[in-house]
Each structure stands twice: as C-alpha cells, then as structure tokens.
C-alpha cells in the first residue's frame, strides 16, 4: 500500500519492489468477514506482483468474483496468510520509477526520504 | 472494564527515546483520556463503522493502537506512521499485531489509502511553542511541539484526514483549549464538510483537554 513520494516522482511509482527480504510468518485468527471487507481496498495486481516477489504464488492473477456468499474458502485462507500472517521483517523497497530505496528494519518500513531515523 | 495495555516492557530509557521525560506524566494522562474515549465508543466503532483499516498518526508508545486492537479483535489492520519500535513492542507485549511505518505524518500512504481508512486516532503535538520548535532538530521536541497556538501540526493533519477517511469513517483528535477546538471544528465543517462533537473533556492540571470526534456530513 506504500507508494514512493519523492518530489517529482509521480508516475509508475507503485508498487514498490521488494528485495533482499526476510520473511516471518506469525499465525493469527482467521476472520473471513474482515477479508471480504478488505478486498475492495486492495490493488489486486500490486498484491499479486508483490507476493510473487517474495515467492508466494498462492493467489490467482485475476481477482475472483467475491460478491457472492460462497466465495472460495481456500482463496480466503491464502489471502489471510498473505495479508495478515506474512510479515516482511527486513528488506528493501525500491521505487520502480526513480529507484529510491526505502528500507524495512525489524518489520517497520522507513518512508522518510533522508532515512534519518 | 477493558484492560489498559500493559506497558511494563518499556524501560525509562524507552520513554526517553519517545518522549521528553519531564512531559511523560502529562502525556500519559492524555493517552488515558484517549483510551477512555475509545472504551465509550467501542460499540459505535464495532457496530456502525465495522472497520477494516485503523490508523494512528503519531503512535508513540503504541498504547492507543494496542488498545484499539484489543477492543476490535484481530479483525482490523492498524497502521502507525511515525512509529518507533516501542509501538510494535507494546502490541507484542499485549498479543496485538500492529503494522508500523516510519514516516512524516502520512507520507507514502496517500494516495494508496485514499478514502480507505475507517478509524483515525491522533494525539498530536499540541503544546503551544515558538514556530521554530516544530521543525526542531531534536526529534523528541517535535513529538510535542505544536508551534503557534499549538496548531501548526494539527492544521497539516486535517486535510490529510479528509483524504484518508472512508465514507463512513471516524476521526478522533485530542486537543487542548489553546488549540481553539471550536475553530478546528468550524474549519473541518467549512473546508471538508465534516460534522463534529466533543466526546470527552478533562481538566489535567491547568490544561483543558478535549477529544473531538469527526464524521463526514451525511449528505456528503
């Protein structure tokens, strides 16, 4: 959901590209209703591209029809895994346009441009 | 009665990194005012808002986000810009999963989260100080220095809230008398079509503290 905000960098600046990542998986309660509410807020393409970058291919390239009640349980479980249980602990996020690198340390992305913190 | 987030994992050194030690007791007092408010508002937040994404701007110890996480359960994502590791640590100590981002106010979140955030909490730097202090090199000072009328940072946050908040979303803001709460409400109504109310008021020493609650006007 993070986007490059370097001055003058206005196009092709999302999604930030992950590299050199260290992933931690922490199990948490599965809440299908939350996932349903969350789906409209996601940029599906960005999610798929980012997931693939870290080696996760469990989500379909095209978002399935999610409005009906009998939404695929398996699909929601996979989404839960990615959105809520997969944490990037260390890594880098590179803007595809201006190549500015934002770092992630101890699970916290640093979006400050001068990396002062 | 809901449990107050456990902060016993924070050492006095942690506090010194997050806050000016002289101001700790006062700052904790306004945090508690915020927790009281959220406790009163829990039914409204759960039943009317049904939030997906909650955002705390300036999360400090992470106490407010953690509390929100506790009352909402694991059904929401909490994002904390300008956070330090203490935010995550507080969440962890209390078995609440938080996402934190180090940034300036909300840079990097917009426009991705445009009209996507359901609950925004902010305990801003509201202390009346000279203008220069807002841009102080000392990051601790910046955590409470509000500049002229204590409003300089608050006034930066208000338009961001308009951009971030979802259609049914709610925004809670802690202010003191010197920040001119009436004028803040008027500004939000005129410039961004938000309705407002004072949901909490407390005298803390000589300081009059308010929690303001904002929602978009219904016909908006």
From TrEMBL, chain A:
It comes from the Eukaryota. Pfam families: Trm112p. Transmembrane segments: none annotated. GO terms for biological process: rRNA (guanine-N7)-methylation; tRNA methylation. Signal peptide: none annotated. SUPFAM superfamilies: Trm112p-like. GO terms for molecular function: protein heterodimerization activity. CDD domains: Trm112-like. Belongs to the TRM112 family. This is 6860_t:CDS:1. It comes from Acaulospora morrowiae.
Automatic annotation (TrEMBL), chain B:
GO terms for cellular component: eRF1 methyltransferase complex; nucleus. GO terms for molecular function: protein methyltransferase activity; S-adenosylmethionine-dependent methyltransferase activity. Keywords: Methyltransferase, Nucleus, S-adenosyl-L-methionine, Transferase. One of its GO terms (biological process) is methylation. It is found in: Nucleus. InterPro entries: Euk-Arch_PrmC-MTase, SAM-dependent_MTases_sf. Belongs to the eukaryotic/archaeal PrmC-related family. This is 13904_t:CDS:1. It comes from Acaulospora morrowiae. The lineage of its organism: Eukaryota, Fungi, Fungi incertae sedis, Mucoromycota, Glomeromycotina.
């Amino acid at each position: 959901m993070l986007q490059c905000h370097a001055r003058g960098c206005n196009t092709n600046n999302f999604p930030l590209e992950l590299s050199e990542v260290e992933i931690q998986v922490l199990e948490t309660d599965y809440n299908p209703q939350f996932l349903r509410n969350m789906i409209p807020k996601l940029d599906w393409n960005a999610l798929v591209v980012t997931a693939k970058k870290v080696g996760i291919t469990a989500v379909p390239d095209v978002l399935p029809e999610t409005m009906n009640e009998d939404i695929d349980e398996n699909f929601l479980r996979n989404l839960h895994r990615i959105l809520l249980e997969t944490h990037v602990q260390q890594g880098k996020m590179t803007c595809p346009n201006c190549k500015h690198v934002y770092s992630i340390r101890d699970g916290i992305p640093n979006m400050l441009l001068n990396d002062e913190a | 009665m809901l449990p107050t987030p456990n902060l016993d994992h924070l050492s006095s050194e942690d506090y010194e990194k997050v806050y000016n030690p002289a101001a700790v007791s006062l700052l904790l007092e306004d945090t508690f005012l915020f927790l009281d408010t959220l406790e009163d508002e829990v039914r409204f937040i759960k039943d009317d808002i049904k939030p997906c994404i909650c955002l705390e701007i300036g999360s400090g110890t992470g106490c407010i986000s953690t509390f929100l996480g506790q009352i909402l359960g694991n059904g929401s994502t909490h994002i904390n810009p300008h956070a330090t590791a203490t935010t995550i640590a507080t969440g962890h100590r209390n078995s609440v999963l938080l996402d934190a981002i180090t940034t300036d106010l909300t840079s990097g979140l917009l426009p991705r989260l445009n009209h996507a955030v359901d609950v925004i909490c902010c305990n801003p730097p509201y202390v009346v100080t000279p203008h220069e202090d807002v841009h102080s090199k000392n990051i601790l000072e910046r955590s409470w220095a509000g500049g002229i009328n204590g409003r300089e940072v608050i006034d930066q946050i208000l338009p961001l809230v308009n951009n971030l908040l979802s259609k049914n979303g709610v925004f809670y803001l802690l202010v003191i008398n010197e920040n001119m709460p009436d004028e803040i409400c008027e500004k939000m109504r005129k410039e961004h079509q938000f309705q407002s109310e004072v949901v909490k008021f407390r005298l803390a020493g000589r300081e009059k503290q308010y929690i303001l609650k904002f929602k978009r006007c219904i016909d908006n």
